[in-house]
Each structure stands twice: as structure tokens, then as C-alpha cells.
């Protein structure tokens, strides 16, 4: 099941459960995904890949994080808490990110694999 299909399915579940907060966030995500899909159309129909959907979700998450910082700086904890709840919902659809140690391990492995010995090998 694609990310887009999962969101649509979860919208139906949120409607049945009468979860207004989750429903609002999911509808917003669905609209952003549809906007991206429309912008990708060339001569007819287009279907977003999961990678494109993740890009849209990451952008939405980044916007929420920036809003949280601004609200906390402005002393508006009530609005920051709302954004945090929305971010938590969005994060559920994003793939788990690698930790810094995991990234360093992959980079070291790639360096060894390519036989790089210094900056000149970049």
C-alpha cells in the first residue's frame, strides 16, 4: 500500500472514530499530495511515487517544526502543543531516519570500498 493510499484509508478511519485533529491533518496532507500530483502531470495522468510523497510529507513536517520554534519563542505554548500533535501524526507516515552513527558507518564503509585515502580522492 502506497503512502497516499494509507493516508486515504486513515482519513476514513479518523472519520469513523470522530478524531477531528487527525482528520484535519490527514486532509491537509492529502491536499498537498494532490497538488504535487497535479504539478507532476505531463499530458494526462500522473501517479506520485512513494519517494515524491515522502518529500511532500518531509516538507510538511519541516513547516511544523519551524512553527513550533516560532510559537515557543513567542511564548505561545498552546499553539506549539497543537503543532507538536500535528507533527506526531505526520511523523507516523515518514520512514524512520538513520541515526548519526548509522550514517557515519555507511560513509566509512563506502570510503573503504572506494579506496579513498585522503581529501584529494574526493
How does this model look, in words?
The protein is mainly α and 122 residues long. Helix content is 74%, strand content 0%. It has five helices and no strands. α1 (3-17) packs antiparallel against α2 (20-40), α2 (20-40) packs across α4 and α3 (50-73) packs antiparallel against α4 (77-91). The longest helix is centred in the middle third of the chain and has 24 residues, at 50-73.
User: Helix coverage percent of residues?
Assistant: over 70%
> What's the total count of β strands?
0
Q: What is the radius of gyration?
A: 19 Å
Unreliable runs: none
Main beta-sheet strand count, sense and barrel state: none
Strand portion:
under 5%
End-to-end Cα distance: 39 Å
For the residues shown, what is the average pLDDT?
A: 89
Summed up, the helix count is 5
**What overall geometry do the principal axes of the alpha carbons give?**
extended
Note the run of SSEs as H and E: HHHHH
Helix/strand structural class: mainly alpha
SSE map:
Layout: H1 3-17, H2 20-40, H3 50-73, H4 77-91, H5 100-114
In short:
This protein has 122 residues and is mainly alpha-helical. The chain contains five helices and no strands. Helix 2 (20-40) crosses helix 3 (50-73) and helix 3 (50-73) packs antiparallel against helix 4 (77-91).
Index terms:
single chain, 122 residues, mainly alpha
